[in-house]
Amino acid sequence: MKTYNIFLRSIVFVVLIALAFSCEKPLEPEPVSQEPEMPPLTHTGANTFGCYIDGELFVANEGPSVWDIPAVSGSFDEAAKRLVLQGTRNNNDNLSDYLVILVNNIDEPGNYMFDIKFDHVKGYTQKSEESLVYYHDIGNKGSCTITYIDELNNIISGTFNMILVNPEYAVSSSINITEGRFDFRY
Question: Which residues, listed in sequence order, are joined to residue 126 by a DSSP beta bridge?
Fold first, then answer.
């Protein structure tokens, strides 16, 4: 019996030693990026809005605002089939900018031209000491592809591209909006 207890203790000891050496150091959690990322293409009503403005990432976000406007705001009128959508970006310096898209006659998923009927429809505004405004170009309206529409659950999603203009700016009379995307619950 004494030999059996010594044998049993030896096995338990060996198993404990083996377990001690097999334990790995816990993995360090991956650092969370503070940099904005392009929102994924989704159809869930996630209220996301992003694009590139002349190659620079624009992602609508929450932030300080006098009017407390949500990062993604707007409406989809189911009777008129009209989408008005604004993505607002705020930064830590109380500066903000926003981008607006307007689409009419949305019956189903597909390609649509922006609904611009006259000059000076604001498309992009940067609010700072010197506010910058770029307008939809009536000669080159841009387009929106509605990828998903669910009127029962009030979700509309899509992609967009456009060129906005302001010939009065000597530095850059136009800006190029590319790879735009949104997933909006109205």
Answer: 97, 132
